[in-house]
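Question (not urgent): is this output format expected?
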Amino acid sequence: MPARAETCDTPPFPWDDALALGLGALGWSPAAFWAATPREFAAALGRRSSPEPLSRDAFERLLAAYPDPGH
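Got this back:
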């Protein structure tokens, strides 16, 4: 018997909204919608991907490399 899938707390992807935006608001054909990458889809919606937040380790390296004068 196959292993049971683990449950996760992540909500399902909002396919209905994505289809409405891609096929409706953007006016893409189904072929264009399914061929688009997530980055292309976000760009078409005028969204930019956010950079990864700075890790604590990277922050500490920046502090060491560029200390505040007098601190």
